[in-house]
Each structure stands twice: as C-alpha cells, then as structure tokens.
Amino acid sequence: MGSRAPATGLGRDLAVVAAIATAILLLPLGTQSGAALHAVILTLLATVLGQGWNILGGFGGQFSFGNALFFGVGAYAAAVLQMRLGINAWIALPLAAAAGAAVGALVGALAFRYGLKGSYFALVTLAFAEVFRILANMLPFTGGGVGLMLPLDTRAAAMQFASRVGYLYLIGAFAVAGFLLHVWLRHSRFGAWLVAIRDNEAAAAALGVDAFRVKLAAIVLCGALTATSGLFYVQYLHYIDPNIAFGPAFSVEALLGPIVGGMGTVFGPLVGAIVLHALSESTRNLVADVPGVSLALYGAVLIVMVRYMPGGIMGLLRRR
Amino acid sequence: MPDATILAAALVNGATQGAIYALIALGLTLIYGVLHIINFAHGAALMAALYAVLLLFTGLGVDPYVALPIVTAGMFALGYALQRMVIGPASHGRDENILLVTLGVAILLENLALVAFKSDTRTIDTPYAFATVDVGGVLIAVPKLAALGGALAMTAALFWLIERTDLGRAIRAVAKERQGARLCGIDVEHVFALCYGIGLACVGAAACFLLPSYYVNPTVGGGFVLIAFTVVVLGGMGSFVGALVGGFVVGLAESLGGLAGITLGWGENMGQLGIFLVFIAVLLFRPQGLFGARG
Amino acid sequence: MTMLKAAGLSIRFGGVAAVDGVSLAVPEGELCALIGPNGAGKTTLFALLSGFLAPQSGAVEFDGRTVTGMKPHAICALGLARTFQIVQPFAAQSVRENIAVGAHLRLRSRRDALAFADEVARRVGLAGELDKPASALTIAGRKRLELARALATRPKLLLLDEVLAGLNPQEIDAVVPVVRAIRDSGVTVLMIEHVMRAVMSLADRVLVLAGGRLIAEGPPAAIAADPRVVEAYLGQGTAARLARSGGAP
Ligand SMILES: Nc1ncnc2c1ncn2[C@@H]1O[C@H](COP(=O)(O)OP(=O)(O)O)[C@@H](O)[C@H]1O
Ligand SMILES: [Mg+2]
Questions:
Q1: Contacts of A153 (CB under 8 A, 6+ apart)
Q2: Closest to A6 (Cβ–Cβ): which among C81, C90, C114?
C-alpha cells in the first residue's frame, strides 16, 4: 500500500465478493449432499444475520442485544403476508425488508433521539425484542404461541424449492447483497461518517456529521437486511413461533459472528459464521445433540474473543 | 371491586415480590454505581443461585433459610472471581467489552444449566410451604413473610456496609473518582471485584428467600433481570434508596395490576407487556444525566 | 463584513457563571486571539459559539445568520469549524481517514475526500504521517491533526482551542506559520492561546476573558500594556511573560 496514491482496496474487496459468489454458484458441482448443503445454507443465514448486526454494531458502534427483533419481524411479515393475505413470496420479500426497516426506524428514532448509547441501547433493543415476542404471543393473526406453519408449495414462483440448491442460491443472493452493502460502507462517505461516529461522536459532530441521521440510516439498513434473513428462515423451514422469532438465540447469533470474525470489517460476519458453525458442528459430533451445549460454547467463545482477540479473526489478518 | 381480604393479600404479595426485586436491584445498582456497567449476567447469577439452593435442599437436606450464609458467601466468591479473572481482564478499558463479556457469562451459565438440569421447571417441597399466619384477618404465607423480612434485613445490612464501614467508604470513593481513589492508594481492581461479589451476594440472598415460594429453570433469571433493570432505571442508576423504593413500586404495581387485569378480564400477558413498555419509556424519557452519556 | 457576532452570551454551571454576558464581533479575514487565565470560560465560549452548548441567554450570528440553538453539525456545515483543546482523534483510523471525515462535508466521493485529505495534510505538515494510525501520533502531531480535520471542512471561520499548548518551542515555531497561512488563504480565525509569543506575532486583535466576562480588547501591544489584563493574570505570572514577550514598547 503506497503512501502517495491513497489505495482504497475497493477493487480487491469487489474481487473477493465475486469469488465468494462464484464459489456459492459452483458449490452444487462439488457436492449434492443434503447435509453439506444444509450446513452451508445455515452458515450463510448466520452470515446475513451477522451482516445486519455488523452495519449497526460493527461499523456504527451501537451494540444491539436484540437483533432477533428484526429477524422476527421479517419472518412474521413473510408468513403473515403469504398466509393471511395471500401475497406472493417474491412480493413479500421487499415488504418484509420494509417492515424490518420500519421497525428499525422506530427503535432508532426513539433511542437515538434520546441519546441512548452503550448499555442503554443494548437494553432497549433487548426490551423491544421482548415486547414483540409477547405481542406475537397475544395477537390473533400471528397464530399466538403455536406459531405459523407455512404450507408447502415447492415452486420457485412461491420461493420454495424442491432441492436445497434453490435455497442455497436464495440465501447466497441475500449474502452477496449484504457483502455489496458492506463494500459500499467501507468505501463511501456514509460508511466513513458511521465509523467516525463510532470512534468519537463529538469529534464527528464538529466535522459536520449529523450523528442522529447517520445512526438512524444504519439501523434502518440493519433492520431491512436482518428481516430478509427472517424471511428466508420461514421459506426454508416453513415454521415460525414467537420464541424462535424474537427469542435470544438469534440475537446472540447475530452479534457473535461479527465479533468472532471481526467487527466493522467487510468479511468478518462470514468468517465468524464459518468458524462458529464449524465449532458447533464438531461439538455436536462429540456430545451428540444435548440442548444448550452449542449455546454454552457460544457464550464461552464470546468471553474468550473479547478477552484475547478483541479485533476478531480479521483483526489478526489486518495490516495494521 | 375485589373484597378487602383479596386486596390485602395482593398488597402483601406485591410487597414481598417488591422486596425481592429490591434485593436483586440493589446488587445491580451497586455494580453499576461503581463499575459503570450494566451486569447482563445478573439474571443468570440469580438462576445459578436458585439451583444452588435447590441442590443444597434436595441433595443435602439443607433448608433454604439455613443455606443463606452458604449461598451468599458462594455467590460472593463467584462474583469476586468472575470480576477479577474474567470481566476485568477482558474489558481492555472499554465499557462495550464489559457489556459483551457479561452477556457471554450469562449465555454460558444459562446453557450450562440447560445441559445440567434440562429445561424442567423445579420446585422444592418445604414443610412450611403452605403454612400461613393470620395478620389482622389476612392469611399470609410464611415463606412470603420470611422473604419480606429477610429482604429488608439484607437491604439494611447492605446500607450499613456501604454507609458505615471502611470498605463502604473505599467503595464510595472508587464510585466517585476512580483515578483519585487509585492515587490515594486504594486497590481499585480489588474494590471492583468486591463490588461485583457483593452484587452477586445480594442475588444469592434473594434466591434463598425466593425459592421456597417460587421455582427454578434455566431461563428463570431473564424475567427478573429485566424487572431489576426497570427498578434500577426507575430509581436512578447507582442509587440505593432508588432501588429500594423502585423495587416496592414495581412489585406492588405488578401485583395490583395483575389483580386489576384478572378483575377486568385482560390476559396475564398484559402485566408483562406493561413492565417492558414502562421499562422502555423510562429508559427513553429519563433526563440525560442519569444515562451516563459519557464524554 | 462581520463573520461572527455574539450578543450577551451567558451560561451557568450550577452556581458558576462560566460565560457571563459576552458580546463580541469578528470581522471577515481577521485573525483574532482570545486569551485569559485558566477557567476564564474560553473553551465554554467556543462551545456556545459552535453549538455544543446552548446559551441560557444571548445569541450567536455567523456569516449573517442566527445560529443560536442549532446543532453543531449544522453550524459546521455553514462553515464554522472548531478544534478541541483536549484532542479528539478517531484513534483507530489512519491520519488520512481522520482528515477525510472532515473533507466529506463538502466532498461526496471517497476518492476525492482521501485525495483532499492528502492536500490538507501537506498544508499542516502531516504529509509524512498519512498512513499512521492517529493513536501513533505525538502530541504535536495530534494537534496538527485537529487543525487538519477542521480545515478539511473548508471553513469560513476556524475556532482554534489552544492548538499550541503542550508543544515545545521548535514545534510552536513550526505551527505558527501554518496558522498564518490559513489566515492568508482567506479563512477567518478566532484562536484561544496561552503562548503569548504566538499571540503577539499572529493576532490582529486580542480579546481578554476573565471570570466569564470580556474585560478588554484591542491590538496585541495595547493589550499587553493594559493594567486590567495584567491584573487578571496576576498570580499566574503571565504579566511578566507579557512584558518579556516584547509586545509592550
Ligand atoms: N460541563 C461543565 N460543567 C460544570 N462546570 C463546567 C463545565 N465546563 C466548564 N465548567 C466550568 O466553567 C469554567 C470555565 O471553564 P473553561 O471554559 O474550560 O475555561 P478555560 O477554557 O478558559 O480554561 C470553569 O470554572 C469550569 O470548571
Ligand atoms: Mg480551555
């Protein structure tokens, strides 16, 4: 990296995204094993979930402990729109993203208008996720605690696929969209502003950065992208209930991937998702499928990462 | 309009529950006041303490009230060690890191409990579980009365510790001005760990008073901790009196609200929802100063 | 034309009147110094002028517009940039990235902002440190970075809060011409400064703040000889420094 011409690395980042997209496209040539494809699909789902969190938490420094809020809103929007209103899944996709964005705007407008930061922001996101979990239990059109079962309709036109390859390409497309969003953040004015706010909000304001609007835009993007992962979950597994949708598991998964991979980096969410899924797969092989083991492991990983590797895996690979 | 006995029972229930909330919230507010962090592991610690009480009872036949000193001391030791060996070293001087580490501890504890005890909800069967005393015509369950008295006594002990002892003075010095305290020769890391330990000891005591009339499962802490956060935020972060008063306010509101909910035919969910909405509203609308907006 | 005008600005913290009825005017193109003993309220006055604090009474007019009650970022967008006495770098970012944040106020393109950052760095003498993380800079380097970031917003008016404090004499001699060049490029400057040698050589006019009030103003030589000013500084040894600095005839 020369000191004269400011090399931005945009070309390199785009090349890596293209390589990842190609790898996803070609993967079915390498394996048709359902289990292998399933593992890759879940890893990519975790990647998208992590990407959503990374926009707000990694780039913006606003740690959400309740990102399941957006996941759940996307999942329920997808299920309710299709099952209650008969709307096609492909049309439900932008609507689910918009619902995630709208909830993001609501939470962000309240939290950032009143200057919530750090622990308080984390608490408020957690509380909103809980409120939505209770609402999903109470409201008539969500199916209550029983949840919603999306009827089988394996046609691409209904965004359902007979083969896992279709789902691989679908979540792959979401992930690539997430990567492109990240590359844009890394190389745009908006991203520079967001990172400046993370590093020092007062200094950013003194340089003309409107912290409220930038953070609000970040949580809207986070909500929209995370909601698409919720929609994918419903299309793939055909079922959602309040505890899956708004419970702590996805909130934890959303933040853990970027923390392990490297917060505020373009490829951290992917690296983190791969490492975590490899880890939980290998423990599953060791101790069968005892509930709690993989989440306990996640807790331990979180502690160890913050203690010994605060920059995540990408932090170790970085030049500086 | 419910009759006077039901109302009185609801008041006693609310006061008992409030005393437990206050005890949990006192630990939380102490940790916040000194370390300036929100202890996300507080609920998990309560859960761990409840299991400790359960195991002491079912395994060794130790009565929960007899177990009080054991569990409280054990939780203190756990808290001291956690802060000294895990949370402190992982913070790297950044509050965000502490936030994440306490979340990690919470996830770890809750899921270890899930591995060890499955997701079953368990209770203990004490001889006095259904004993009641008659106070002015109102029948009050003995465990509830013990919880009320015990929580008040523990709170008084904590006040005495903070206000009247050398340790309390050191704690207050660190809370106010940690650099200054360091310069005065106070071992700040030690005080941090003591505070975290005392915070968890409060939770241990709460568990002993709670279990005879309550239950335990791996996720039991979650509900309490959000309520404790509400109490602490209501009463003002770092304020002991606030935590005490806030605990009773929330306990009574919950109990009377539940009574109103049943009388008016709303669901049980309304009470829960109400607490979270109050929590969000309080977080948002309290004056800036209480929110530790640093810088 | 008047670039900056304040009328009756006041703010109290608890019982302390940190800034107490301050009125001032800085004409376009001037380099004006604001001096006064520690705790006089200089930094607080800057915070009021730049929107970081809202005055309890009084008004601020910048470039012909009332900006009282506006947010700092909006005031900055109008062309008023400030530096911080306690430097506030984006520590994890490179010097170039730090300066580019300022440049982005006027430049949308990342490439343009980074290129402009290089140009500004050259003007303040940071060209050799562009790829270093801000946290690796010396105190002098960080002060230059504060200056560079503010400058990168292409301000009409710069408020500099003790950019020379903590620098050694050689470093001061290196930065003084930088400030002069900024003024010569057409930027109006209001600077808080304790280094009297620099004030004497740079300022067109000096304002003196003590106890939250403006107690004197005038050309540097006259201020140095003003008994009220000497008195305000008594006990701080600045009267002697003023005399030694050669400002008085
Ligand atoms: N945020 C604040 N809260 C309370 N007092 C303050 C605050 N900021 C400044 N002060 C007080 O206002 C007075 C002026 O401070 P300051 O503007 O920093 O002085 P100067 O920059 O001239 O040294 C001092 O007495 C200081 O203690
Ligand atoms: Mg100052």
A1: A160
A2: C114
Instruction: State how beta strands C213-218 and C205-210 pair.
Output: antiparallel
CB contact under 8 A, A204 and C76: no
The rounded distance, in Å, linking the Cα atoms of A254 and A272 is 10
Could you tell me the distance, in angstroms and rounded to a whole number, from the CA of residue C193 to the centre of ligand 2? 9
Determine the residue of chain A that is closest to B289 in CA distance. A115
Q: Calculate how close chain A gets to C159, using CA atoms only, in Å.
A: 11
Which residues in chain A have their CB less than 8 angstroms from residue B101's CB? 302-303, 306-307
CATH number at residue C193: 3.40.50.300
Q: What is the identity of the amino acid at B48?
A: A
As a whole number of angstroms, the distance between CA A191 and CA A60 comes to 9
Report pLDDT digits (tens) over A85-132: 999 999 999 999 999 999 999 999 999 988 788 888 998 899 899 999
Residue A316 lies in a domain: no
> For B104, which of A137, A248, A306 is closest by C-beta distance?
A306
Distance, in angstroms, between C232 CA and closest chain A CA? 31
Q: How far is Cα B207 from Cα B227, in angstroms, rounded to an integer?
A: 15
The answer to whether residue C249 sits within a structural domain is no
Each residue's pLDDT, cut to its tens digit, for chain B (295 residues) gives: 567 777 887 888 888 888 888 888 889 988 888 888 788 899 999 999 999 999 999 999 899 999 999 999 999 999 999 999 999 898 887 878 888 899 999 999 999 999 999 888 988 888 887 888 887 777 788 888 888 888 888 888 888 888 899 888 888 888 888 888 888 888 888 989 999 999 999 999 999 998 988 889 998 888 787 788 888 877 777 777 788 888 888 888 888 777 777 777 666 666 677 777 777 887 777 643 333 333 2
Is B292 exposed, middle or buried, given 0-12, 13-18 or 19+ CB atoms closer than 10 A?
A: middle
Element (H, E) at C57: strand C57-62
- The answer to whether A202 contacts C88, with C-beta atoms less than 8 Å apart, is yes
**A280 falls within a domain:** no
Tell me if chain A has a CB within 8 Å of the CB of C48: no
Inspect the interface and report whether the beta carbons of C101 and A8 lie closer than 8 Å.
no
CA A256: distance to chain centroid? 10
Per the structure, the complete domain to which residue A126 belongs is given by 7-27+35-248
- pLDDT above 90 covers a percentage of chain A that reads 73
Closest Cα in chain B to A311: B97
Which of C76, C93, C117 is nearest residue A206 as measured by Cβ atoms?
C76
Q: Please check whether residue A228 is in contact with residue A89, taking contact to mean a CB–CB distance below 8 angstroms.
A: no
- Burial class (CB within 10 angstroms; exposed 0-12, middle 13-18, buried 19+) of A1: exposed
Q: Which residues in chain C (1-30) have CB-CB distances under 8 A to chain A?
A: none
pTM for the model: 0.90
Give the ligand with the smallest distance to the CA of C161. Answer: 2
**Mean pLDDT on A66-76:** 97
Counted domains in chain A: 1
Kindly list the distances between the CA atom of residue B63 and the CA atoms of A236, B154, B203, B209, B221, in Å, as whole numbers in the listed order: 50, 18, 17, 11, 22
More confident residue, B268 or A305: A305
In a domain, A289, yes or no: no
- CB-CB under 8 Å, A200 with C131: no
Contacts across the A-C interface (CB distance below 8 Å): 93
pLDDT tens sequence across C11-36: 999 888 999 999 999 999 999 999 99
Query: In chain B, which residue's Cα lies nearest the Cα of A125?
Result: B280
pLDDT at A59: 97
- Is there a domain that residue A62 lies in? yes
The whole domain housing C130 covers 2-244
CB-CB under 8 Å, A189 with C110 = yes
